[in-house]
Q: What sequence folds into this?
C-alpha cells in the first residue's frame, strides 16, 4: 500500500498484492482525493489489526511451548533412564529392538 | 563425563518445573555410558550398572515429581479456571496412574507411567485447543486464526501424539524385558497416588 507522487502534482493511492495465479505482484490503482484517504486509513487499520493478531498468536504459541516443555523434558529423561536400565541389564539395541547381549549375565 | 548433546537433547526449561542441573548431568552421564556399553565397552557396562544402582533412584524420583507437577499444570490450564473440571482432571490423572502402573510397580515403571499420563494430558489439552480454533474459524468469521497459527498448533499436537504412543510402547517393552532380565536393584520410593 503506497501513495504515488504524480508529475502533475497530487498523490495517488495504490495497493500491491500477489496474483493468486502466478504469484506476480499486481499493483491496483485505487484513487486520489478524500475517498482514497479513507481507503488508505481503512487499509492501515486492517494492517494494524492483522499485526496485533499475529503478535497475539505468537505470544500464545510461546505460552504453549513453555507449558509443554516440562513434559517433553520428563519424556526425554524417561527415555534415557529406560534405555540405561535395559543396557545395564544386559540388553543391546538391534534395528530398534532390544536383544539380550551374548555373554552378559 | 558430561555429554553436551545429551544435555542439549534434554533442553532447558526455565522456571520451577525443570530438572536440576545435577539431575541433567547424571542423565547425560547415563546416556553417554549407555552408548559406550552398547558399542561393546564392557567397563562402561559395569560402570553403567553401578551408576544405575547409585544414581537412578534419585533421578527417577525427581523426574517423576516433575512429570506429576507438569501434568497438574496442564490439567489446571485445560480446566480454564473451573475448579470442578480441575478436580475431575486431577482425579482422572490419579486413576490413570493407578491403572497403568498396576500393583507394586518398579520405580522405572512409575516414571514411565508418569510420562504416559502427562503426555495423555498434553495431547488432550492440545486437541481441545485446536478444536477451539477450528470452531472459532467456522463461526466467528473475521476473528479467525491464521492458517500458519493453526498449522503450528497441529505440528505441536502431532509431536505430542507421537511421543504419547512411543511412551506407551516403551512402558510395554520395559515391562516385557524386565520380566525376563536379571534385576538391576533400585531402591526408591515414589508415591503413586500422592497429590
A:
Amino acid at each position: 500500500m503506497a501513495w504515488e507522487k504524480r508529475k502533475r502534482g497530487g498523490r495517488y493511492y495504490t495497493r500491491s498484492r500477489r496474483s493468486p495465479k502466478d504469484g506476480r505482484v499486481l499493483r491496483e490503482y485505487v484513487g486520489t482525493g478524500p475517498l482514497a484517504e479513507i481507503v488508505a486509513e481503512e487499509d492501515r487499520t486492517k494492517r494494524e489489526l492483522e499485526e496485533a493478531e499475529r503478535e497475539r498468536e505468537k505470544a500464545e504459541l510461546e505460552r504453549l511451548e513453555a507449558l509443554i516443555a516440562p513434559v517433553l523434558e520428563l519424556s526425554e529423561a524417561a527415555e534415557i533412564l529406560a534405555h540405561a536400565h535395559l543396557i545395564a541389564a544386559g540388553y543391546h539395541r538391534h534395528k530398534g529392538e532390544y536383544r539380550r547381549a551374548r555373554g552378559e549375565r | 563425563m558430561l555429554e553436551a548433546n545429551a544435555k542439549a537433547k534434554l533442553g532447558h526449561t526455565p522456571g520451577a518445573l525443570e530438572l536440576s542441573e545435577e539431575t541433567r548431568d547424571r542423565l547425560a552421564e547415563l546416556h553417554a555410558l549407555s552408548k559406550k556399553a552398547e558399542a561393546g565397552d564392557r567397563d562402561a557396562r559395569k560402570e553403567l550398572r553401578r551408576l544405575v544402582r547409585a544414581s537412578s533412584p534419585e533421578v527417577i524420583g525427581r523426574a517423576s515429581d516433575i512429570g506429576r507437577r507438569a501434568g497438574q499444570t496442564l490439567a489446571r490450564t485445560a480446566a480454564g479456571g473451573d475448579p470442578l473440571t480441575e478436580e475431575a482432571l486431577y482425579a482422572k490423572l490419579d486413576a490413570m496412574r493407578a491403572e497403568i502402573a498396576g500393583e507394586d510397580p518398579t520405580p522405572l515403571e512409575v516414571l514411565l507411567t508418569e510420562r504416559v499420563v502427562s503426555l495423555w494430558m498434553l495431547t488432550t489439552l492440545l486437541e481441545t485447543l485446536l478444536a477451539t480454533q477450528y470452531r472459532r474459524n467456522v463461526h466467528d468469521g473475521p476473528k479467525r486464526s491464521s492458517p500458519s497459527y493453526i498449522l503450528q498448533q497441529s505440528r505441536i499436537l502431532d509431536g505430542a501424539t507421537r511421543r504419547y504412543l512411543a511412551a506407551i510402547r516403551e512402558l510395554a517393552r520395559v515391562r516385557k524385558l524386565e520380566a525376563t532380565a536379571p534385576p538391576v536393584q533400585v531402591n526408591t520410593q515414589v508415591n503413586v497416588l500422592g497429590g
The interface with chain B takes residues 53-54, 57, 60-61, 64-93, 98, 100, 104-105 of chain A (CB under 8 Å). Residues 2 and 14 of chain A are 5 Å apart (CA to CA). The two ends of chain A are 75 Å apart (CA to CA).
